[in-house]
Automatic annotation (TrEMBL):
Protein name: ATP synthase mitochondrial F1 complex assembly factor 2
Subunit structure, interactors included: Interacts with ATP5F1B; involved in the assembly of the F1 component of the mitochondrial ATP synthase (ATPase). Interacts with FMC1.
BP terms from Gene Ontology: mitochondrial proton-transporting ATP synthase complex assembly
Residues spanning the signal sequence: none
InterPro entries to which the protein is assigned, alphabetical: ATP12_ATP_synth-F1-assembly, ATP12_ATP_synth-F1-assembly_N, ATP12_ortho_dom_sf
Species this chain originates from: Oreocharis arfaki (tit berrypecker)
Gene Ontology CC terms, in alphabetical order: mitochondrial inner membrane
Tree of life domain: Eukaryota
Family to which the UniProt record says this protein belongs: Belongs to the ATP12 family.
Cellular localization per UniProt: Mitochondrion inner membrane
Biological role stated in the UniProt entry: Plays a role in the assembly of the F1 component of the mitochondrial ATP synthase (ATPase).
Length: 245
């Protein structure tokens, strides 16, 4: 944390996009690059994060700012192909593909809650995913992986950073794509990603404040990542058409 050193937050349009101004200083990334984002809506969202800070700046609450810094600095130096492959690799260990046989109540809960989402994704992308009770997980066909590789290639580098962030939070490509495609809500996606934990809480009780804190944090990160993807995927053509309509 750092003491708040600015009074006003504003945005301005520069040559490379939209910039964030803290009083008369331009925001910079950790690698001292000019903090420039591709859309005005994203700039407003980031500015809101900075403006909502009180006496001290809590960087760990500023998920959109962090995602922008990652997109601008690319600390892992990965290209688009590497980002896509990393995202698709999550299919091999996807949360909703690993099922239990015992206890029967949890197995039934997984079937009832996860199967409809898997079925929707299979239909939406015309792929085969399935599930397994084996520790090795299901055998995901190569054609399924290639379909997701092809789909993710339609996103730009910024959006891909956000998609990987959401997948990392939910430990699931299936839930992440369902969320980004607006088939399920953030609350539903987080609940489904924590299904076993929620089952155990209902059975054995809650640890005072700890589970609630973890749940709120996961929702906040997942929501920020999803919003980031949508704001980075904005098309000026689509935007113009919406304004006309």
């Amino acid at each position: 944390e750092r003491k708040r050193f600015y009074q006003n937050v504003s945005i301005s349009q520069g040559e490379g996009g939209f910039e964030i101004n803290l009083d008369h200083r331009k925001l910079k990334t950790p690698q001292a690059k000019l903090f420039t984002v591709p859309s005005e809506a994203l700039a407003i969202a980031v500015a809101t994060e900075w403006d909502s800070q009180k006496d001290t700046i809590k960087f760990y609450t500023m998920h959109l700012t962090t995602l922008c810094n990652t997109a601008l600095d690319n600390p892992t130096q990965r290209n688009k192909t590497q980002l896509i492959r990393a995202a698709v690799k999550f299919l091999e260990t996807d949360t909703v593909c690993y099922r239990v046989e015992e206890p029967p109540a949890l197995a039934e809960l997984q079937k009832n809650e996860w199967d409809p989402v898997v079925a929707w994704v299979e239909k939406r992308y015309n792929v085969t995913i399935g599930s397994s009770t084996s520790i090795l997980g299901p055998n995901i066909p190569a054609s399924t992986k290639e379909t997701f590789v092809s789909h993710l290639a339609s996103y730009n580098m910024w959006a891909l950073q956000g998609i990987e962030f959401v997948i990392t939070q939910l430990k699931s490509l299936i839930l992440s794509m369902s969320l980004i495609d607006r088939h399920i809500t953030v609350e539903k996606a987080v609940l489904l990603s924590r299904l076993e934990e929620e089952y155990q809480i209902r059975r054995w009780g809650n640890v005072e404040w700890a589970h609630d804190y973890d749940l709120c944090e996961l929702r906040a990160r997942t929501a920020a990542g999803t919003l980031f993807v949508h704001l980075c995927s904005e098309s000026s053509t689509v935007k113009h058409k919406l304004l006309q309509d």
